[in-house]
Amino acid sequence: MLLKISIIATIMLTIATFGIGQSGKRIFNNLQDLQGKIIISVSDGRYEIIPYNDKIVHTTFYPKDKEIKNFSFAVDMEPEEVSYYIDNKENIIDISINKLKVIINKSPFQISYYYKDKLLIAENKGYVTTDTSQILDFSISKDEILYGGGARVLGMNRRGNRLKLYNQAHYGYGTHSELMNYSLPVFLSSKQYAVLFDNASAGFMDLDSKKNNSLNYETATGTMNYFVIAGTDWYDLVAQYTNLTGYQPLPPRWAFGCFSSRFGYHSQAETEATVDKFFEKGIPLEAIILDIYWFGKDIKGTLGNLEWYRDSFPEPEKMIAKFKEKGVKTILITEPFVLTTSDRWDEAVKEKVLATDSTGQAYKFDFYFGNGGLIDVFDEKARDWYWNIYKKFTNQGVEGWWGDLGEPEMHPADIQHKAGTGDEIHNAYGHEWAGIIYEGYKKDFPEKRPFILMRAGYAGSQRYGMIPWTGDVSRSWDGLIPQPEISLQMGMQGIAYMHSDLGGFAGDQKIEPELYTRWLQYGVFQPIYRPHAQEAISPEPAFQVGKTLELAKKSIDLRYRLMPYIYNMAFENSRSGKPLMIPLFFNETDNPMLLTYDKAYMWGDAFLVSPVKAKGKKRQKVYLPKSTHWTDFNTGKVYPGGEELTVPLAMEHIPVFVKGGSFIPMIIKAVNESNYSLDKFELHYFVDPQVNKSAYQLYNDDGKTAGTFDAENFELFNFTAINTEQSLTVNFEKTTSVEHYQSIENEIFLVIHNLTKVPKRFIMGGKELKATDWKWNTASKLLSVKVKCSLEKGKLEILK
């Protein structure tokens, strides 16, 4: 009874605080419970409320006497069988879905959402219309910070901005960009809830730009619907969102290694010479990406050829096979445009695979690359036609695809697609394009993991294996500055692989060694390691010289040595949606300073990374979260948490710290992924007196076959550490049902950091180790012990 009184009091306070709502004109008529769908009929239409689980609820408004088109592309989840209770009082309807509540005030009409009896958000005017648009209007609290809206450069707090929802490239951006390639219709709040508007139409999301504690979503067409998503913490909130919109499939392991890429390689000879240069310099290389010149001599007039330009690439099959022998994959660029001057124009028109004009003819337009049309990726016939081209080259040995200009770069508002006009489905174009490739692989190459690099997408694009990048960033310090912000924001929105062209893309100026070095050092701790730039320069590490080459090799070496750790992060993301780059406030929620902090971030659970983003900088401030000590990864110095440090900078590395109690697996030597193995590896453990117990799970599979987890074709290492004043105990074991992994007794070189003195004794499996079985470095205070890990549980006791 006290709880009900409390809820009612809160509702009345909400109405008093947020206003009467719905402008007092919307009149409640009745309620229907249709077992999984709740209908609220009102004077101007009806609400449909569907619980998806006990933390996600979907609300749709259907206006009376108006035909509604559905442009929903984000959701991958079917509503679960979830119990709910409806308490229909005189003036209040209480829909309780476990701890998530939808409270409807009948007069004045208002819908509010609560989690654990805490108000999340409330409709204010709700659904309203103007002469040109339809709007969903909400009230928000005065102090909450808002994130989301896709990829933009506006600072971590997006509140105060009216965000245009229209995917569009921003060439050469730097420290400010209001509109970019991924304009997602979702926001997250510092109150730990999110709202997704699942409508791919062009529109706006206004995050309190008028500073009156209002938020609204506006579009001209499509279903006006939204999902309210709650979470017990930040990780759970992101997990719920990715449960709704889909999980990123685990990419091939080679995707986390070094790429060779530029705009672009003009010939087979140049491409082969570039790959040879990497091997000559002793730099591991996983893939080379061919830009526009693989299908034509010139930038203009050739889009849509989608066939090897044999004058420049006379024997591509031999080139691909030669690269494959070296462990190097070939990736090709494609664009969704077919020009009238291309070799496929007549075929595309005949097969009716292009979007049309009002008369049903292929819609032709002029843009930078020439005159032509756009493939209708929403049409099944066009999707099959396009996929068969990808299939042909995949059979030829191509291992990955780069989809460029997929906003689309040119997209007339009145162009007709199978699913709607250009403006009606604009933001889902890149999303559906990626889906063609992903679904094609599932059908025709079911054992292969696709690599799909895409410039534009929509909410939920991660489920198609999309690897996005941050667009045509300026090759300048201003371009480097916002990169962590963009990736952190996108990771919160379910798209964890957002990464930048290392070194920057836009600009013809020569490489600035310091900028290039700092960008590549940051790249070690971003999802994909891909230097890229315009063709006026050579962005590949193999073409650098002197100190720049030396430092680039050092960064790449570290990237490869961390491959087990990074791949394990990718596995966790594929199961839970956990971001790879994590804002510090995820782990220290009670620190208001961190809510807008992007000077440092977590790279997985163990690493705190603080990129250097200014020329000639000698010192940098870094905040280290509380509750543990932090070890400088480069110097070994230990710092207490809960403080902001000023650390000296060196050109050899950026500030990186390891959280106390962390396990970090590393391979012993940086090698091409084709030679990757965990038969022998290092496992670093960072002792912290504040951390009594630690646990870490390391996933391993063949790195290339799709569906290994579901097929139980993997091995899983489990490590725990128990630290007391007298001893440190490390437990380890391997679980697997695969005969190949069962037969291997893994050799692990356990490296213990931060012990204050040489231990007294070592006991393994009840037997004391000999002095030759371990090594102590007095200067660095590092202890190294070789252990064997098998299906039998192992235990190492270190007596201090």
Walk me through this protein's architecture.
With 800 residues, the chain is an alpha+beta fold. Helices cover 19% and strands 30% of the residues. Helix 6 packs across helix 8 (429-444) and helix 11 (513-523) runs parallel beside helix 12 (546-561). The radius of gyration is 28 Å and the shape is globular. The N and C termini lie far apart (57 Å). The model is unreliable at 1-6 and 15-20 (pLDDT under 50).
SSE layout and pairing:
Layout: H1 2-18, E1 28-33, E2 38-42, E3 45-53, E4 56-63, E5 85-88, E6 92-97, E7 100-105, E8 110-115, E9 118-129, E10 134-139, E11 146-148, E12 161-165, E13 186-189, E14 193-196, E15 203-207, E16 214-219, E17 224-230, H2 234-245, E18 259-261, H3 268-280, E19 287-290, H4 316-325, E20 329-334, E21 337-339, H5 345-350, E22 365-367, E23 370-374, H6 380-396, E24 400-403, E25 416-417, E26 420-421, H7 422-425, H8 429-444, E27 452-454, E28 466-468, H9 477-480, H10 483-492, H11 513-523, H12 546-561, H13 563-576, E29 581-582, E30 601-603, E31 607-609, E32 619-624, E33 629-632, E34 638-640, E35 643-648, E36 656-659, E37 663-666, E38 680-686, E39 693-700, E40 715-723, E41 727-736, H14 739-742, E42 746-753, E43 761-764, E44 767-768, E45 774-777, E46 782-789, E47 794-799
Parallel strand pairs: 18-19, 19-20, 20-24, 24-27, 27-28, 38-42
Antiparallel strand pairs: 1-2, 2-3, 3-4, 4-17, 5-6, 6-7, 7-8, 8-9, 9-10, 10-16, 11-13, 12-15, 13-14, 14-17, 15-16, 21-23, 22-23, 25-26, 29-30, 30-31, 31-36, 32-35, 33-34, 33-36, 37-38, 39-40, 40-41, 41-47, 42-46, 43-44, 43-47, 45-46
